[in-house]
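Subject: Sanity check before I submit

Could someone independently write out the structure tokens for this chain? I want to compare against mine line by line before I put it in a report. The sequence has 118 residues.
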Amino acid sequence: MGHVHLFTFYEDGLRLAAEKGGEEIERELGRAILDLALNPKLITEPTGETVRLSHKPLGAHGNCVKWVAAPHSSEETLFLWAGNCLRDLRQLEDESLKATQKLLEEEIGRRGSVQGPG
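---
Independent answer below. Compare away.
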């Protein structure tokens, strides 16, 4: 197996692009996905930190296509929609991490019979 690329797409950007229509938008979307997944670019943040460029425009929407992560197919991890984006558990700020814990505890309680590993 290999890595799985996770993306998010903003609906308003997709709608605007669909209204414009045509094969050029389809090519632009395909190029954005392939570039973000297979040709990652590094940028330097104002803080001096070097990070992977994670978004591309689609039509007039400046960050419609967002690369989230590429976990290996053998990994287990959690993602949470928080702060207007999908985030890996390891990237969550403390407040979002606590919210994730609460969501998990509520779901486990709702199911009632979930057993831990082992």
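---
OP: Matches mine. For the report I'm noting this point. The radius of gyration is 18 Å.
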